[in-house]
């Protein structure tokens, strides 16, 4: 009888270990709302799996993964940081899937009325007082896109000393919401979630590289059935696609 009970316990533990697990996804800060909702829906369908979301600037997250942080999926706000992890042998190139698109916009606090024309002859530095916020322009994707746009518009020099670099795009949004920055450059999806800012205009796509969000399993994640299943849910499920659309992302074919 004891042998039967012992065998039953072993089988139960084995079954539990294969059914239960944790999946950790490192995702760009601009994906916070969408991925939080998707994770909740997924966990309701698969309660044996715990989804852990870590949000931040794609550059910071990529460096953490490179340094050995435990992660199963990486959802970047640009293709460069994904390619970086491929070069560092943390992600297989054939796992990378360009999934979402976004737009770059100029925002201000709702109570301000600042004109905006994304044209080289528009004197941006003269139409507002104070600072313009954007993510760090050398590393964070939103900031890199912003620098490209400001450079091609020939506005960068005129704004010298008035640009505040933040850790990620959500920090930029917070600075503008508080009025600490009179202008901010963020993604359209970030602007749409706030009741305290307004979109002054969209930067035409020819002013910066395409805003593309690739998703990939890390090497550790590719060996996890739960991570593989969650990635498939993000990419293929109607629930995920509906949520991404709701927050203003475009879906890549």
TrEMBL record:
Name the UniProt record assigns to this protein: Molybdate ABC transporter, periplasmic molybdate-binding protein
Pfam families assigned: SBP_bac_11
Keyword Signal attributed: yes
Range of residues in the leader sequence: 1-20
PANTHER family linked: MOLYBDATE-BINDING PERIPLASMIC PROTEIN, MOLYBDATE-BINDING PROTEIN MODA
Protein keywords: Metal-binding, Signal
The organism's place on the tree of life at top rank: Bacteria
InterPro entries reported in the protein's UniProt record: ModA (IPR005950), ModA/WtpA (IPR050682)
Species this chain originates from: Acinetobacter radioresistens SK82
NCBIfam families per UniProt: modA
Coiled coil: none
Family: Belongs to the bacterial solute-binding protein ModA family.
Keyword Metal-binding: yes
Bilayer-crossing regions: none
Cross-referenced SUPFAM superfamilies: Periplasmic binding protein-like II
């Amino acid at each position: 009888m004891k042998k039967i009970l012992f065998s039953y316990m072993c089988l139960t533990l084995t079954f539990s270990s294969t059914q239960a697990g944790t999946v950790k996804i490192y995702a760009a800060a601009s994906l916070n709302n969408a991925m939080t909702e998707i994770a909740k829906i997924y966990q309701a369908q698969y309660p044996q799996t715990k989804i852990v979301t870590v949000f931040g600037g794609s550059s910071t997250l990529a460096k953490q993964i490179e340094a050995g942080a435990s992660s199963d999926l990486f959802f970047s706000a640009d293709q460069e940081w994904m390619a970086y992890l491929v070069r560092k042998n943390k992600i297989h190139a054939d796992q990378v899937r360009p999934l979402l698109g976004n737009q770059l916009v100029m925002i201000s606090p709702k109570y301000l009325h600042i004109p905006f024309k994304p044209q080289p002859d528009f004197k941006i530095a003269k139409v507002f007082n104070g600072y313009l916020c954007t993510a760090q322009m050398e590393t964070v994707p939103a900031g890199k896109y912003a620098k490209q746009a400001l450079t091609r518009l020939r506005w960068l020099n005129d704004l010298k000393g008035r640009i505040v670099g933040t850790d990620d795009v959500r920090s930029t949004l917070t600075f503008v919401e508080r009025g600490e920055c009179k202008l901010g450059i963020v993604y359209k999806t970030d602007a749409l979630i706030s009741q305290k800012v307004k979109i002054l205009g969209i930067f035409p796509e020819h002013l910066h590289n395409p805003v593309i969000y690739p998703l990939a399993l890390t090497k550790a994640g590719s060996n996890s059935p739960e991570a593989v299943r969650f990635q498939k849910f993000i990419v293929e499920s109607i629930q995920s696609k509906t949520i991404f659309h709701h927050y203003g992302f475009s879906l890549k074919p």
